[in-house]
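Before our next group meeting I need something from you. Please put the record directly below this note.
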Amino acid sequence: MKPVQLPLGVRLRDDATFVNYYPGANAAALGYVERLCEADAGWTESLIYLWGGEGVGRSHLLQAACLRFEQRGEAAVYLPLGEVAEYGPELLDGLDQSELVCLDDLDAVAGRADWEEALFHLFNRLRDSGRRLLLAATVSPRELPVQLPDLQSRLTLALVFQLHELGDEDKLRALQLRASRRGLHLTDDVGRFILTRGERSMSGLFELLERLDQASLQAQRKLTIPFLKETLGW
């Protein structure tokens, strides 16, 4: 599926899908986000707040939810607030016309009166129209420096999930899942070699896998430890 064009040139990653997400300890969060995307989800399951550090898959799940709606022909919007906050809260005007609104990096605008007021009204419009809202931030709702009491009250209505970083064994399985989606066979030995030599973040590991995918296609060679050493200079 082609990336969806969104306001200000924001685009969804076409590899940010549910089937491309290895949950590890985050299986419950994944299940509820998928439930949110079902046609008959009620409001109590249509306001979800995900939080966690870098590389835990917050943005991936938000974009995967948008893609699921788009595949059904329903309007969805993804806004990474950390990237677009400078444009002002007017960006939120009219978003309630979408069946799903995904707001990433909520902590980037928390504490800003104009944004908080606009978010509060957007929450109300989405709830009143039976639409869905998926939020993500680096901290929990309690730690979010929200100043507007009404907005803080709305956040207490959300289903909240902390996303946890994958352990090494789960990182290996996540790499193998992503490799298989690319048509690559990544053995346990080669995967563990990558984990001991490569970056620790999942985003860094996936970027490395993309490099290896391109190199293996050009060289017409399988992913082996000698090939990795030769390609990456390890």
